[in-house]
Design a protein that fits this description.
By secondary structure, this protein is of the alpha/beta class. The chain has helices at residues 12-22, 68-78, 91-100, 114-130, 152-162, 222-235, 245-251, and strands at 2-7, 27-33, 45-46, 58-61, 82-84, 105-108, 135-142, 170-172, 186-193, 199-207, 210-218, 241-243. A hairpin with a 2-residue loop joins strand 10 and strand 11. It starts with a strand and ends with a helix.
């Protein structure tokens, strides 16, 4: 049985994860952490992760960037692997994740959807094959409550594509202030915010007289919850190191 501490237990994603875990064999949540410590899912909820005394095998953090440092500190002190699914992290926070992974296993992904990570793999293959002949643009759409833009997933897609290109591309986020032609070494990133869009990502390869599009549409938050639970099952068996969804996908 994989025993989970869920950070962000009473948030929207926390509630979805609680339901997914309740329907999953060999996984249980032993404690939750949330500023709202109401107990609604059958396990104790604490305001601080340092109040948790229950034995656990893994932490799933789907909370807020401000909680990251305490989650990682608890992970190090208790030698418990963690799944970091919170988005909108700063570069210094990402470095903290890397530093922590030297002592304990950490799973970090900008997007917990298996489908998203499949289209990233397809986009990398396409970018390498089409390099020099196609312009690359990334479009992401999210609900009107999302704070960060572009999304962490869009940036992750751009970074993965950049890694297979012979020239390091320039990321262009805003064209309205520029009156010049698009260069061949650009990757455009565009953000749309509105309504209750869960998360859409599209990679456009625009060439001469043809366009190739690779897209992913998330219809509900459940796809991210399922991925986080799968990541928890995976990471609790691993040695110290930094792991991502690509490691999980390759293990299936």
């Amino acid at each position: 049985m994989v025993r989970v501490i869920l950070s962000g237990a009473n948030g929207k994603m926390g509630r979805v994860i609680s339901r997914i875990v309740s329907e999953t064999e060999d996984v249980c949540i032993v404690a939750g952490v949330d500023i709202n410590d109401e107990m609604t899912s059958g396990y104790p909820v604490y305001k601080s992760i340092f109040e948790v005394s229950e034995e656990a095998d893994v932490i799933i953090d789907f909370s807020h960037p401000m909680c990251l440092e305490s989650v990682l500190e608890y992970s190090r002190k208790k030698n418990i692997p963690s799944v970091i699914a919170t988005t909108g992290l700063s570069e210094s926070q990402k470095q903290l994740i890397k530093n922590t992974s030297e002592k304990v296993a950490v799973f970090f992904s900008a997007n917990m959807s298996l489908g998203i990570n499949l289209i990233i793999d397809l986009a990398k293959r396409a970018a390498k094959l089409l390099e020099g002949n196609f312009d690359i643009e990334i479009i992401e759409r999210h609900h009107n409550q999302k704070i960060d833009a572009p999304s962490g997933t869009a940036l992750a897609i751009a970074d993965e594509i950049s890694g297979v290109l012979s020239e390091v591309p320039e990321y262009v986020y805003d064209r309205h202030s520029q009156r010049k032609k698009r260069t061949k070494t650009e990757i455009g990133l565009h953000s749309l915010r509105g309504g209750t869009i869960v998360g859409d990502h599209e990679i456009v390869f625009a060439g001469t007289d043809e366009i190739i599009e690779i897209s992913h549409h998330a219809a509900s938050k459940e796809v991210f919850a399922v991925g986080a639970v799968r990541a928890a099952q995976f990471i609790c068996k691993m040695e110290p190191g930094l792991y991502s969804m690509s490691d999980l996908v390759s293990s299936l």
